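Might I ask for a little of your time on a matter of protein folding? Here, with my thanks, is the record as I have it:
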Amino acid sequence: MPADALALALAAAALHAGWNLLIARAGDPEGAGAAAQLFAAVVFAPLAAATWHVEAAALPYIAASTVAELAYFTLLAAAYRRSEMSLVYPIARGLAPVLVLIGAAVATGAHLAPVAVVGVLIVAVGIALVRGIRARGDLRSTGMAAAIAVTIACYTVIDKSGLRHAATIPYFELELGLEAVIYAAGLSAVRGSGVVRRGFSRWSMAAGIGMFGAYGLVLAALRLAPAAPVAAVRETSVVMATALAALYLHERVTRERALGAALVCAGVVALALA
């Protein structure tokens, strides 16, 4: 893997973990999340316009992916309000590629490669450690993290097909813009019109830049290296997010949870390289 592609993939991982940290640390993750999405959609609209190519065939995929992304962000912000980032992030990001892999195998009837099977098992052990083998509480947060993983798997599969009919930046802009408007409108209807306005801050705006920036850096890395190693390096965000949660959110990340996050990362790397 070229050094420049490695640097871009690592930067994408850091940005992804970073914007999650900024949403998780907000006093109101839902309001901050809505503000971040709206800000990103507005700021990056000129870039999307400059690279515009969206076929009519892409529109059903954009609509379906918007629904999945809306469910993803609704669950993510709610999970960060109720639980710890060091629990939610590793489970959601680790379980998602496992679901995509198993779903593809079931749909096509293909057999999983031995390396992929090992990767799935490593992820399973890692998630158990992140959750806590002896832990009995916080089942709701674990369930929400698993549900987030399902939404990630859904929009990943949808986008893989949808991007055959559109340029990547305009596709993502349409998806993000639609989701941002719907999420902000729904949140305002439930909690009042001021919730999104109060969510705007330099931190939520930075989170919005991080959302789009992480996506752009992955695309740049994919231009320089094959998808498998880029995806593998990108998953180092699991370890980064856990470390950031300990350092900046002061979450009690035990050695068991830290080891679990590392194993989740290792398992997903194995899946990416299988």
